[in-house]
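Pasting two entries for a bug report.
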Amino acid sequence: MIHLKLDDVTYKYPHEGARTVRIADLTLTPGLYYLYGANGSGKTMLLKGLAGLLTPAKGIVKLHRGNQALDVAQYKWHMGYCPQEYALLESLTVYAYLKYIAKMRFIPNQLIPSRIDELLDTFQLKSMARQKIDSLSIGQKKRILLLQALLADPDLLLLDEPLAHTDLHEYNMLSRLLASEEGERIIIASDHPISRQMDISCRILFISEGQLKGPYDSEQLKASLDNRIVTCRIPTTRWREQLEKMSRVCSILSLKHGPEEVIFRVYLHAGKTSGSVPFLANVEITTMEDVYLCFQIPSVRDNMLR
């Protein structure tokens, strides 16, 4: 069984006063793990650390295959990394770039064409194989970055915001593709949760207060918020006067200003109903954005994890 074990690990950039991310004790088995955290919380730093681009300030990171802990060279061989930045050779065609990466990963020459063709087909890029990368859209370039990380069929796949800057079609396609791979490997993908219902089940890791927390089951987290996420609409002339009353019955997750009304999205406190909120209120379907925002509020987080 493949598993990734982190034992009392701390990652920190070398400059003075840099943020740290601490992992007390964590073992991950094959599956899809979405990594959430505020901007600047250390998501990219953690992924760079797990990719071997940043040495831990303390602790031990080991990737195991069966009973064997891999050494550093073996770890890198069995790991794939997709950075947030576009590290692409844009003057090359898609096929030429992937062939170059395959050779860099020491994939045997006789296996390279079939492996590239298989992944081009999976990522719906076969028709673009002979196009230069600089002619592609941002979403298509995102797919190439993800594809190159999978070329060597890694046991550990590290993805830094693979779904950012994608349209709805690409977002759904890549989300399902990642979900389909979860039984084969450990996938850690940083992401910004969006206000859309997630239709796949996964596990969630949070970076909060400088610590990596989890993993948690996404369906269980959403279920803990059932009937507690509500929107209410308050006239623009009256919303400020309602804040104190609202604070007694709910926690405000977000608000959106319109010309005539302010739309609040809130978490109802225990024992409260949508009727407790001023003005018209509607119970909403929980999204992963709701889960993420609720997790940042300590009292709500405690209720979610009970």
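Entry 2 (this is the one that rendered wrong in the viewer):
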Amino acid sequence: MPVIRILIASIFITASVAQAQPSLQIGPVGNAMMISPTMPGTTLFQDNLDGTFDWEGSMMMVGMWQAQWDLLIDTDPGVSGVFAITNTSGMQQSFVFNVATPVSVSVPAGAQFNSSSALTLADANFNGTALLAAPTGSSVFAGLIDGAVESTLYNDPFSLLVGAVGGTAVNAAGDAGTTSRNLVGTLGITHSIVLSPGDSATANSTFFVVPEPTSAALMLGAGMVLIRRRKKTGVKR
């Protein structure tokens, strides 16, 4: 039956999208590294077979920076986890950490979204001072829908300071609302920070969108209605 063929095609497409893998971009602005789950640096990448992935790993450039991540990625759709970076150079640097995942559902504009981020800054070189700041004209956190910014936290001129030897400073923020655009391809988070030399920053962040019923589920419901109608009316093909 045509209805059954459409249902099978829809379910196949949804499953194919869910099997696509997320990606990372880490490093200094202008020289960040693109990382896939199969590249060196990933210590764990696990497909949980329910549309979610666990991704842990680390990466470094000797004398420049080192980073670690521990992420839970949901294609249905959301991203959450911890990212840490240490500026091992002798100069202030601007860093980016981007994570993006293909989504298994299309979500129309007007859906609910939630974003949150908790930042920790540490005086890792024990010189008594540390700085984390938003880049000029930008934000430390951005929640992305199909590569476009949907939600921001810690907007310029935000900064976090430590003024004690070996000290730390923390800050938490959140945002919620309705999406301004359709979600059809990818959902992600971008962190952009200016970090003082020798110091470490950690972000524990989340961004997710509450989906409408999937198109496959809607089509399944419509298909069942058509089948019942055919049984009642005796329509045959």
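Dev reply: Rendering is fixed now. As a check, the viewer should reflect this: The chain is about 15% helix and 50% strand.
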